Amino acid sequence: MSERFTILKTNEEVSRRIDELAAAISADYCDITEENPLLLLCTLRGAVFFAADLIRKLTVPSEINFLKVHSYQGTRPAGSPIFDLGERIDVRGRYVLVVEDIVDTGQTMDTVIRNFSDKGAADIRICTMLDKPSRRYPQLKETVVPDYIGFEIPDLFVVGWGLDYDEKYRLLPDIMVYHPDAEEGKEQ
Ligand code: IMP
Which amino acid residue places its CA nearest to atom 16 of ligand 1? Predict the structure, then answer.
């Protein structure tokens, strides 16, 4: 890898943090039953690796389902999040834990929470691998507050561990800061 990428969190740090999050979530949901298991709603595609590791560490009855949400183009938000698959998921009376890769402006999580609250979920919480609170839209600062956060990070564009730049770099094992300005001349 060239200097376009610098390590922010190593694979080992992320894995250790997932252990801690899984322990905290399992403790908080200790009353969850087999009849009404915790429903993890994983956002596609960025949160897939995070959610897969997290759910296998939970000690409470859990199920997983997936939402397709996209709002980024390159390193900039592309406008309102587009949201599908969610329509078919019945969340009535369910304890929902939305599993997200990164919360940035908060638009995506705002859309998801509104959608599922309207559909009668008993409870909705957010678990995100990364949070960039300094990027939150002012009107969402109070309402989009993740319940479980892997790491709070500054305003940086990151890739790896499921996070992409125009579908590239998702499979990098560490979370890396991506420096697009250093790209010119490097790939040609
Ligand atoms: P929000 O709606 O602005 O909070 O953006 C959330 C979505 O934007 C995430 O699910 C990611 O897909 C994408 N995103 C935000 N920041 C980054 C980043 O640093 N790297 C890669 N994707 C990002």
Answer: 104
